Amino acid sequence: MKGVLEPRFRQRIGYQAGLLGGFAAMAAALLMMGNLGTSDSIAQRQQEDLVASLTQVIPTALYDESLLSNNLVITSSEGSATTVYRAVRNGQVTAVAYEVSGAGYAGEIRLLLGVDAGGKTLGVRVISHAETPGLGDKIELAKDDWILDFNGRSLDNPDDAGWHVRKDGGIFDQFSGATITPRAVVAAVHEGLRYFRVHSGEMLARIPDPATNAVTGG
Amino acid sequence: MAGVYRRIITDGLWSNNVVFAQLLALCPLLAVTGTATNGLGMGLATTFVMMLSGFAVSIFRSIVTAEVRIPVFVLIIATIVTLVDMSMNAWVHDLHKVLGLFIPLIVTNCAILGRAEAFASKKPIALAVLDGLMMGLGFTLALVILGAVREILASATLFSNASLLLGRHFAFLEQQLIADYRGFLLVALPPGGFLALGFLLAAKRVLDTRLARRAERRTAPDAPTMAGAG
Predict the structure, then answer these.
(1) DSSP-derived 3-state class of residue A155
(2) Pairwise CA distance, residues A42 & B93, whole Å
(3) CA distance B80 to A127
């Protein structure tokens, strides 16, 4: 029915192109306005998320400055950058937290690791994972308190042989039906502590003047 | 005229339901229905997008030509979804953390493009918006039913985390049906979604046949109302 009644000009290629272009321009304008209106609150929400997870791995007694105000970015020789969040009390770095990751059963497991100045684990929390619900997701604190086993551990406690799940001769429990997930988490935390040993000089360097040293980027 | 509205409502909610009759939108359906709450959140977000897209497509129906209609519709839907995604991230952040992964997937929900093409592009604004609302609610209904079935079987809870989605006043919805339930993992995994959906589809068939037979017995057979759009 449309073809007969449609005015001529609408069949011209220019009309069609202009129509499509007009809609694209309108969509771009709307999205730009949406982005302007929401980007500030989105950034703020993400900061709140970050602070919420950082406070889980660093006790509040260890810092008197915002955990986000003394970031340090360490770039490895391969070029990958790790952001280290430093807890500072009286100008002294008392603890650090950074992200470590392991290869789980269903993709990457991202963890946040908190370490005190002496190299002892303060806490580990899962940031994201895609492990099997009901089996591998016991690494979440909401599901199981297994992840608390790492509290107080360091590279000497246990020794290298102990940093495995029981099945591999170590001291950490695996879950019935899921060994790959805890194995990956144990290895990632162990690796993270070794990372601390290598970089502790940089991480714990006294912060001269918080005002000039503040790095806000992530 | 009232008949038109009633027809749209029954089509959307039941007889031409996006999931149970058209078998569309199965990807988001199976992905989020681990719990009834997730299903509800995804359903409401989709309903909102369907109403807005029905509105926009219907407004522009007289200037959009048949040749470029599909890219224009996709552009409209994608813009709306992105705006919804950004606003949810900014203002209902906790819900966005739960559903965030699935919101962009609404773009690929073929039911929305399907309704734009089959309905909104030919009908006045009020009807298009009503159709979007009813199709969306029908989709929400399917998501909540499937989510509830899977959640009960998998962990014997119902509407867990509902207070996160709807606010603290709705915490009463969260139910633990059986204490110390051992869990039924299969239902929580993707295959369980397919199985549960299969049983629900079969159940709807049985119910529809029963209803039709009862109606037949009572009166002379009416014209069938199923539209069966794909």
Answers:
(1) coil
(2) 8
(3) 29
Is pLDDT above 80 for A214?
Answer: no
Q: Is the peptide bond before A133 cis (omega within 30 degrees of 0)?
A: no
Position A69 confidence tier, pLDDT thresholds 50, 70, 90: confident
Residue B127 has pLDDT above 50, yes or no: yes
Report whether pLDDT(B224) > 80. Answer: no
A144 to chain B, closest Cα gap in Å: 15
Residue for token digits 């209106």? A37
Are the beta carbons of B124 and B1 closer than 8 angstroms? Answer: no
User: Measured between CB atoms, does A128 come within 8 Å of chain B?
Assistant: no
Q: Which residues from A are below 8 Å from B185, CB to CB?
A: 132-135
Range B20-42 burial, b when 16+ CB lie within 10 A, else e: bbbebbbebbbebbbbbbbbbbb
- Interface size A-B, in CB pairs within 8 Å, comes to 63
Buried b (16+ CB within 10 A) or exposed e, A28-55: eeeeeebeeebeeebeebeeeebeebbb
Q: Could A2 and B34 be called an inter-chain contact, meaning their C-beta atoms sit closer than 8 Å?
A: no
CA B207 from chain center: how many Å?
Answer: 20
Domain extents in chain B: 2-215
Assess A11–B contact: CB distance below 8 Å, yes or no.
yes
pLDDT value at A20 more than 90: yes
ipTM score over 0.90, yes or no: no
Residue contact B34–A133, C-beta within 8 A: yes
Mean pLDDT of chain A: 86
pLDDT digits (tens, 9 = 90+) for A8-18: 787 888 999 99
Q: B66 and A16: CB-CB below 8 Å? A: no
For range A42-58, the mean pLDDT = 89
Buried b (16+ CB within 10 A) or exposed e, B134-158: bbbbbbbbbbbbbbbbbbbbbbbbb
Question: Do A16 and B76 count as a contact with CB atoms less than 8 A apart?
Answer: no
Q: What are phi and psi of B81, to 5 degrees?
A: -60, -45
pLDDT digits (tens, 9 = 90+) for B167-207: 777 778 877 877 777 778 788 888 889 999 999 999 999 99
Side-chain-side CA neighbours of residue B21 (13 Å): 20
